[in-house]
C-alpha cells in the first residue's frame, strides 16, 4: 500500500507555474507602458534616446503628467526649478492634442532654461 504513494505527481505543479508565468508576462506589458494612455504620433525619422530624461506626458485633453502623476503649471514650474538645466526632457504628447497646449509647454520649458527637449514618437 505504501508503494502507491511513493511518487509525487508534478504535472499539476507545472500547470500552475505555467499559468503564473503567462499572467506575469501579460501584465508586464502594461507596467512598462505606464498608466497614462497616450497615442503617440508617428514619424519616419528619429533617434533613440538612451540618456535619463525627465518624462512629461500630455493627454489629449491637455492635462500634463510628470512621473505618472497629474500636475498643474505651478507645480511643474516648482518641480523644474529643482532640476539641472542640462537634463534631457522627453515629451510624450497625444497625437490628438491640439498644437497650442504643446507649444505652451515647450515655451514654458524654454523660459525655465531647458534646451534639451525631445518629442517621443512611434515608427
Automatic annotation (TrEMBL):
Assigned keywords, A-Z: Cell membrane, Membrane, Protein transport, Transmembrane, Transmembrane helix, Transport
Main location per the UniProt record: membrane
GO MF, one annotated term: transmembrane transporter activity
Keyword Transmembrane on entry: yes
Organism field: Oxalobacter vibrioformis
Signal peptide (residue range): none
Subcellular location field: Cell membrane
Cellular component per GO, a single term: plasma membrane
Keyword Membrane: yes
InterPro entries: ExbD (IPR003400)
Protein family according to the UniProt entry: Belongs to the ExbD/TolR family.
Pfam families: ExbD (PF02472)
Superkingdom of origin organism: Bacteria
Membrane topology recorded in Swiss-Prot or TrEMBL: Single-pass membrane protein; Single-pass type II membrane protein
Transmembrane segments: 12-32
Gene3D superfamilies: 3.30.420.270
Protein name: Biopolymer transporter ExbD
GO biological process terms, semicolon-separated: protein transport
